[in-house]
Amino acid sequence: MTDVPVSLLDAEYAPTDATTSFVLEGPAPVAVLKRGALLTVVVSLLSFAGAWSSPVANAAISSHAAHANGCATHAGTYPGSKSTDCVALSNNTVFVDDTVVSAKWSLTADIFGFTNLCAAVTIRNQNKSKYFFNDINMTLRPPMGSVTVLNFTAKHALEDGFIAPGAVARGNICFDYFGRAGQYVAMYSPRARSAIRGIWLVNVA
After folding, report:
1. In this structure, are strands 182-188 and 138-141 parallel, antiparallel, or unpaired?
2. pLDDT-based confidence at 6, cuts 50/70/90?
3. Angle at 96 between CA 125 and CA 80, to 5 degrees
4. How many domains are contained in the chain?
5. Which residues touch 68 (CB under 8 Å, ≥6 apart)?
6. Distance between CA 131 and CA 99 in Å, rounded?
7. From start to end of 75-150, where are the E strands?
8. pTM greater than 0.85
9. Rounded CA gap, 29 and 51, in Å?
10. Is 8 inside a domain boundary?
11. Exposed e or buried b for every residue in 118-132, given b needs 16+ CB within 10 A?
């Protein structure tokens, strides 16, 4: 299979009342190599991400999810689902914390030849003040196993920073992929202590 390259395209922001279903094809499990060192980093960062939040960010944003306008209304259930989740619309976007977040998913190979599950992310700030974002707020729940964090192999990485009102931040994020088929649940939690999450359901065949 030829890997689909990550693209950095603007999302279409017209809401639709449908859940996005991403279907990707991955390599055979024997073709995927396990990276023990990166898993160690993953465990460390899980603890760090849960404990850290920016006081500047907390002051800069308002927290609510406009489910009627920016989230799928018939998402169904998935592992770890919450009533406050905002599941992506059919145009790959969620509306959380007065921002429109788009994530377009693909399987890609990094410079070491490992296959990763990556997303091209766009965040549009619709707040009246500047908005702080951080790519470690993106996590991934595989079909089996624990929630994982970024592996920091993405080219043109999203990283972190501030977005002016009306402005857009773009970048890529990547997670380890070990050849397991099934539904992956990608989660975006703008703030560590907030119940609001953006959700993308990514099916890998």
Report:
1. antiparallel
2. very low
3. 145
4. 1
5. none
6. 9
7. 85-87, 93-96, 99-109, 115-125, 131-134, 138-141
8. no
9. 34
10. no
11. bbbbbbbbebeebbb
User: Would residue 54 count as lying in a domain?
Assistant: yes
Question: What average pLDDT does this structure show over 51-78?
Answer: 52
Domain membership flag for residue 6: no
State the DSSP code for 18.
S
Count of beta carbons in the 10 Å neighbourhood of residue 35: 16
Gap between the Cα atoms of 162 and 2, Å rounded: 36
What's the domain range around 109? 22-204
- At 202 the pLDDT is 96
At 14-58, the pLDDT tens digits run 333 444 444 566 554 434 433 444 434 433 444 444 433 333 232
Decide: 128 and 99 in contact? Cβ < 8 Å. Answer: no
Q: Which tens digits make up the pLDDT trace of 94-119?
A: 999 999 999 999 999 988 899 999 99
CATH number at residue 75: 2.60.40.1240
Segment 130-188, tens digit of pLDDT: 999 999 999 999 999 899 999 999 999 999 999 999 999 999 999 999 999 999 999 99
User: CA 158 to CA 131: how far, in whole Å?
Assistant: 14
Distance CA 44, CA 30 (A): 27
Query: 13 in a domain, yes or no?
Result: no
